[in-house]
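If I may wish for something, please sit down with the protein I am sending here and say whether tokens and residues agree:
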Amino acid sequence: MKIFMAVIFLSLLLYGEDSSLLTRAVTKLIDENRKIEREVQTLREEVHKLKIEQQKSLQKQEDLQEKKIILLQQQIDDLKKSKNSSLKPLKALKPFSSSKYYVVSIRDLNVRLGPGLNYRVVAKLKSAEEVVVTNKIYPNWYQISKDDQVGWVYSKWLRVKNK
């Protein structure tokens, strides 16, 4: 800016009285420069606000993640406590002499890794699908086989297939 003003001063000295056109052009340039400086300042302020908002957002995300971790840890602790206090041996298997064909009697039947709701769902069967019951844990769970896959289902949702 200092160099710019020096050029203007020298131009005024060199052109003397014929400098009115130059003076107007310089005035216009100075006004443009001030406008640009204001715009730059406004942009800096907006960038600063955005940085603050971004920091707040990141902090919220970190807080949420921390809360999720705490909740998951509590759930793990609760599962450990419940498993330790409520583990019961499976009821004796009733002898199962022959496999029988059964049909699914509800729209979506969860197939689980083991005989109980605490086991993970590994597949779903549709209504009227046929399965082979390969084992029973009385009173409620059947081990089934379908397409060389094995899993457990709640017995209420299967019925013997009519021939």
